[in-house]
Amino acid sequence: MGRVPRPRTPRRLPRPRTLRARLTVGLVVLLAVSCAAVGVAAVVELNGFLTQRLDEQLAQVGTRFPESLEHDRHLPDDLPQSRKDSTGGTPIGDEQGDTRRMATGTFGARLLNGTVTHKGLIRGGDPSADLAVDLTARDAARLAAIPADGRPHTVELSALDDYRVVATPGRDGDVLIVGLPLEPVQDTVHRLELVAGIVFGLALVVTGVAGAFWVRWSLRPLSRVAATATRVGELPLASGEVALPARAPHTDPHSEVGRMAVAFNRMLGHVEDALTKRHASEERLRRFAADASHELRTPVASVRGHAELALLHPSPVPPEVTRALHRIKAESARMGEMVDDLLLLARLDAGRPLERRPVDLTRLVLDTVTDARAAGPDHRWTLDLPEEPVTVTGDAHRLHQALANLLTNARLHTPVGTKVTVTLETETETETETETETETKTVRLSVHDDGPGVPDDIRPHVFERFTRAEHRRRPDASGGGAGLGLSIVAAVVEAHDGTVSLESAPGSTTFTVRLPRIPE
């Protein structure tokens, strides 16, 4: 079977998208409609006026021409006496008795019982010119169909084109028809149409060009507001101190665009005030966290030291007291780690520079995975490392801490027997700027596990501080951190100009860290 061709969908005209284009197109369309209305009205009025003048000429001509055809170039008896000489024969001034000296193109015909008996056409001012005209049967039928009411009618003759004719009853029961050509009227109307089309076309072109410049000039304040809004939209407003660009200029506050610019500037002022207050609040909270962490380090260490000292006392101690001292020691150690993490986050938020030295990331991954394997022997730990060592610039201690937090997270939040794979590889990214391609090499470090995955409600906030899962995925897990491990990972990676991301699904969870590599 042959393929049935699909019906072609008609192409739609492209719609103007910008306000400037819509205003310009609307202006040109309105002018085009106005010009079309004026042109049509002028053509119709001129055609009616010229046709009326032609009808008046027909009334002046009367039936002299068809009557002269009937009486074989002699005057009819009902002509005025002033047109005849004293003998009653030839008209004054017409030596040969020619009464058909009329306008060129005048047509005359005599019909008797619906049949054309006489017909003639004036072709020039020469009285001896041939008056014969050939009419087809269709032309004769059209002439016979003209009502003899003495009113002008328009008829199309194949041999003579369009004519304006008047049919009048004769004295012998015949019908006398006289007509004048419509060609001069039509030529004048067509000339007006041509001139109007050219003039209106030029007017539309000029109006379109001038209107585009005028609309562009009128919308300059709106373009400035849009440019200011674009610059504001490109600013990172999520955190930190934000400096908003200069306000949008406005010239006339009484115009619509001016009022919008004033309202937009007022809104920018409110946004800037809110961002300033938020930044000040963040700074106060950051200073409080840093100061509190710094001040708590000594008391926590002191509590832990007293607990260890009490446990070392040689005197017999009741079992309940010994258990309480062990709990005090464990909780003080946990609190000390939390205080250290908070202090680290506060320092990273404050933008304190980290150590910048070449770090052998391959060796760091090997050491960290070895520590994780010792801490979690019930998990299956695998490595996927390149043959050549991978080197980055950064703080080796902080990078070790970030990777250790990722491995600890995988160990604590997955059941026994879970396979954890650490992969280290290099990637090459090509960036095109101003027709120039630049290759950038990055290091990709991923930690993948085949555990149950991260819950959907926690996934968007996994790198935020104090984010913890309500239910552990290990039945034997107890205690746990304060939810600062992954936030430290994000802060350390960001301090090294890198990125960290999460992809999680049941049976597959991957944390990916990308860091810039040292050029070879």
SSE arrangement, N to C: HHEEHEEEHHHHEHEEHEEHEE
Global mean pLDDT: 78
Number of helical stretches of at least 4 residues: 10
Please report which band the strand proportion falls in: under 5%, 5-15%, 15-25%, 25-35%, 35-45% or over 45%.
Answer: 15-25%
Strand order of the largest sheet: 2-1-5-4-3
Provide a descriptive summary of the structure in words.
The protein is α+β, with helices and mostly antiparallel strands and 520 residues long. The protein has helices at residues 19-61, 64-70, 137-144, 183-218, 220-233, 256-311, 319-349, 361-375, 396-412, 485-495, and strands at 107-112, 115-121, 152-157, 161-169, 175-181, 357-360, 380-384, 391-394, 419-433, 436-449, 499-505, 508-516. Strands 2-1-5-4-3 form a 5-stranded antiparallel beta sheet, with helices on both faces. A 5-stranded mixed beta sheet has the order 7-9-10-12-11. It has a two-stranded antiparallel sheet with strand order 6-8. The protein is rod-shaped.
Task: Reconstruct the topology from this structure.
Layout lengths: L18 H43 L2 H7 L36 E6 L2 E7 L15 H8 L7 E6 L3 E9 L5 E7 L1 H36 L1 H14 L22 H56 L7 H31 L7 E4 H15 L4 E5 L6 E4 L1 H17 L6 E15 L2 E14 L35 H11 L3 E7 L2 E9 L4
Parallel strand pairs: 7-9
Antiparallel strand pairs: 1-2, 1-5, 3-4, 4-5, 6-8, 9-10, 10-12, 11-12
